[in-house]
C-alpha cells in the first residue's frame, strides 16, 4: 500500500497566484526527495455545511478559497525520511511564515495509511 499526507488550508483569493508559485516549488522539492505524487487543488464545489465542511474547517473568510493538498509516499517510514530532508532543504528551511500566501494557523494536516487503492 502507500502512505498519504493531507492538508487543508485557506488562501486569500488575491494571493492564489503567489500560492501557486510556492506550491510548484514545494512540488519539485518533495518529488526530488522521493514523494510518489504531489497534488494541490483549489475548492470548486465545497458548500458550507450546517455543522462541518471544508470552509468551516479553516474558518474561511469571504475573500479566501480552500486548498486541499496531498502527497503520496511508499510508506510512513519513507514519508518521515522525505519530510526530514524537505524541511532541511535551504529552498524551504528559511521561509518566513509571516510572508507565506496562506494562514498557517488555520491549516490542518495529517498522515494517513491507505485503506483502499486502485
TrEMBL record:
UniProt-listed Pfam families: DUF1428 (PF07237)
**Family annotation (InterPro entries):** Dimeric_a/b-barrel, DUF1428
**Protein name per Swiss-Prot or TrEMBL:** DUF1428 domain-containing protein
Amino acid at each position: 500500500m502507500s502512505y498519504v499526507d493531507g492538508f487543508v488550508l485557506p488562501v486569500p483569493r488575491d494571493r492564489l497566484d503567489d500560492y501557486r508559485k510556492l506550491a510548484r516549488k514545494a512540488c519539485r522539492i518533495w518529488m526530488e526527495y522521493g514523494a510518489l505524487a504531489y497534488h494541490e487543488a483549489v475548492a470548486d464545489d465545497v458548500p458550507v455545511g450546517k455543522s462541518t465542511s471544508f470552509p468551516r474547517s479553516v474558518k474561511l473568510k469571504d475573500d479566501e478559497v480552500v486548498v486541499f493538498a496531498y502527497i503520496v509516499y511508499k510508506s510512513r517510514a519513507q514519508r518521515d525520511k522525505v519530510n526530514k530532508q524537505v524541511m532541511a532543504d535551504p529552498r524551504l528551511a528559511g521561509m518566513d511564515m509571516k510572508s507565506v500566501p496562506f494562514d498557517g494557523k488555520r491549516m490542518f494536516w495529517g498522515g494517513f495509511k491507505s485503506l483502499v487503492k486502485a
